[in-house]
Structure formats: C-alpha cells, structure tokens
Design goal:
The protein is an alpha+beta fold. About 30% of the residues lie in helices and about 20% in strands. It folds into two domains: about 5-30 and about 345-405, no CATH class; about 45-345, no CATH class.
Amino acid sequence: MSEEPEENQEEEYDQELDDQDFKNLDEVVDEVQELEIGSDEEESLNMDDYSIEDIDGEKEAIQMSRQWYKRIEVDTWLTKLHMATTGIRQKDQYRAQSRQFTKNMEVTGDISFFSYSPEDLAKPYKERKKEQKDKTYKEVIGFNISFWDHTFKESVIYQEALKHSQDYEPEEFSKLLKRIVIKTFTELKRDKKKEGHAGRWRGTLEESLLMSINNMFGENRGKPRPFFYINLPGFEYRIALMRTHSIIGDRYMFTVPNPKTGELTTFRIKGRRFTPGKDFRVYNAETGERVAEIDDRMLNVGGRTTIRFRSEPEFELLNRSVVFRRVLILFAIYIRFMKENNKKYRHIYKALRMKKKYMRAIKKAKRSKDPAKLQKVNMKFEQLQRKCKMIKSISVTNSEMTLHYNPRRIRT
C-alpha cells in the first residue's frame, strides 16, 4: 500500500492535534508565560535603558557629534590582563557610575578613536595627514556573561534551563538560550576633572530570540536570522539591526529615523568574500554609496576590528552622526560572536522542526496498532529530546519579555 502524499499527511496532522498525538512527549503549551518581574537575575528589569543618571553623559555625547572620526578601533580581549579589568573595586566603580553596568557584566575590550587635527580637517581631504589617536577619550566594552556563558551555573540561562530539566539536559538546553547583551561605557580613568563623565553608558546591543526565530521561520530554510535592538542614550527610538536574506555571505540591515522629521535612512552592512576575517562594507541602501568599511583582523590575539569612514566632504554630515557611529561600533563588537550565534540558530531550527518527524512517526505507529512499535518510537524521540535534538519550544527569560512590551499598553 503506497504512502499518502505529504500534503494529505499534513492535513491529517492538523486534524489530529485535538487527539493529543503530542501528549506527554511534545505537548504544545500555548498558555502565556506568567511574568515575575524582579525574580529574574538582573537589575536592568527595574529601569529604563535611558535613565536620569545618563543625562550628563548625553551632553558629552552631543559634544562628541562635533567630532569627525576617520577611524575607530574595537579591540576585544581573550584575557582579563588589562588595565580596565584590574583593580579590587573597579567593577563596583563602574556600577556606581551607571546602573547599566549590572553585576554580571565583565569588561572584555576597549574602543579607541582616531581623528584629524583641526588644521588637517580644514584642508582638502586628499591633503590631510594620517589621523591621530584621541588620547582624551576612550571607551570599554561591557559583556553580560549571565546571558551567554552556559557553563556558569549561576547564569540566567542555566537557571532557566534547570526549570526544564524534566525534559532536557540543562547543559544542552542552556546552549540554546544564549543571548547577546553588549554595552559600551566611557573608561573610568578619563574623568580627571571630576565632571561625572567616567563610566558613562554609551549604548546597548541586545539580542531578541523572539524576533530572530520569527525571521528564521519566515525564511523557511532554517538560515540564521539574528535580530537585535540597539538603544542609545538620548535617542528616543530603538534601532533594529537584523541579518537578512543573501545567497552568499552575510548581510545586515538597519534603518535610522530622524527624530525631528521622521525621515528614514537605511543602511546595508554587506560581508566581503574571500578575506581572512569577517570583513564588511557599509552602504547607503537607497543610493548604493559605500559609506564605511569594517575590517576584522582575524589573526590578531583576541580580536581587533577597525571601522573606517569615508573622508570626502559629502560624507561629513554622516560621519558626525553619533547614532550611525554607535550602530557600527556595536556591530563590530558582535562580529566576535557571529559564528557561534549562527550555529545556535541552526540548532534551534532543526530541533523545533524535528517535531514534525515525531508526529509522522507516532501517527504511523498508531496506525499499525502495535504497542511495541509505539513504545519504540516514543523512546527514540524521548532520547532525542533529552539531548535537545528535538525540543517542544524555545523559551526566553523575563528580561527579554520586557523588550516586547507594548509601549502603548494600558497602564494601571
């Protein structure tokens, strides 16, 4: 007897959901997760990204917009043997300066800025000398290990995985819950005049599993589609940064709204092929003009990425944009995690799609009316689920759920 066509099988599958074919092993639970705000790990649940304490820092950020940086160097470290991470009370000092620096955050790199002298900037761009490092300004990279390090037993993701230990091995399930939260701050030692600018928050890149999985299933090929929100001090709108469809290589997109006019400008970050590192070119998506380059030096210790901006006069206004620079800086930091993050989404997609194979197998076993065969199928997929090769659903922590609050919801 020939097997039924795949389309008919899927129709039968839809009809039999009410018969609880997914009972016990992969029962789909569609109840809304009850939020327990404050019971989670991190302090940022109790505040907005843009806090009163960042106002002074925003004044400095506006002052920075008068600068035209030709080059920015993002250096991520493999070790903690650096000035920014040594010192008995340095983490406490960062936390004292900004609540954005939460208890599970580690300093994992620094950011240096290179600009032309005022004299060179007044000359035609082809006559300018090499840009010089700004010795008065530097930033550090803060990385929240509690959302990423699945080997850290006290981390948010491992504790979340423990809640599902009846179904999955926590060591395996926690790998799928990893989420990137990156922030940048001004370095502590730069505040020599005691004006309160040291340790100030400069921007956040936060990954959304919800949006990433939504985009990945929309692609319908299982290609990783990571999605990030970017928040900047003083800028009232979140910026969405996402990986989009490309036949070969990586392509990321983001659109910046003008707060005064509502005018939108879209940029494309396109990966370059046949280079030793993860190199990208940044284009104005509407005009096709190349406006910046991101050079990832793969072979250096740790990871150094250089952002270069165009020097021609027509790009001066864009180069002075704090928002545009911030997005590229945060993206440059993310490059170090790109490969591992894409691998995570491939795993999630395959594990969620495995439910379809289970449904077919269990239905076929039921039709045979052979209890031994049915038991064998259940045992096989229970083992797959235990090792997270099949999962009922992916879950997110309360801290991500707050990312998706309706800002126009009725408040009590």
